Amino acid sequence: MLRPVALNLGPGEQVVFEGHPSWRAILGFYLKGILLVGVIVALIALVGEAAGDGTSTTILVLALIAGAALVVLIGFLRRVATVYTITTRRLHIKHGLISRDVQETKIERVQDVNYTQSLWQRMMQIGDVDFDTAAHDTEGDFIFAGVGDPEGIVDRVHHATEPRGGRTAAKPDYPQSGLGDERTDQPR
To answer: What is the pTM of this model?
Structure first.
């Protein structure tokens, strides 16, 4: 199998998430593709029958199998040729085996992280994670499409963007009382 091209990680940079679109995200492509192949084979059979040349059933079955195999291969290659990576410093999307399309942005440029799930995606337990970054002016430019556990990926981005140790210089890490940012270790 093809090995993914490794990212050149900087000093102290760690991979937080690396993955592909879920295999469940490709099911719709498989269903549509195999249905299309079936329709094409049925049309060939009807045209052959109308022309009177009697296209062989064996040829039609072989065409159906070859077409379905081609759809499955294309879907598989589309899935494995897309790699999503989140590190402690950047987001990275790579598409393609022969020609490449690579998107990358620094993690500190991420302003908002949202995920969406259509009804089909909710049934398949997948979703699209949309990163709004300072680097992109238009919505939808930086999307991890069809990933499993989109909520978990959003959580990983939030943890990757937290300052080291989970604390900020302006706000120490005190236990929360549930009433805003007041400290609970002070007597009242």
So the answer is: 0.72
Q: Are the beta carbons of 37 and 68 closer than 8 angstroms?
A: yes
pLDDT 10s digits, 72-129:
999 999 999 999 999 988 899 999 988 889 888 888 888 888 999 999 899 999 999 9
Report the Cα 48 to chain-centroid distance in Å. Answer: 42
Strands laid side by side in the 82-87 sheet: 15-19, 82-87, 90-95, 101-106
Cα 104 to Cα 171: distance, rounded to the nearest angstrom: 31
Separation CA 131–CA 100 (nearest Å): 21
Whole-angstrom Cα distance, residue 165 to residue 174? 13
For 185, what's the count of Cα atoms within 13 Å in the CB-facing half-sphere? 4
**Alpha helices per DSSP H over 53-135:** 57-80, 119-124
For the chain, the first-to-last Cα distance in angstroms comes to 64
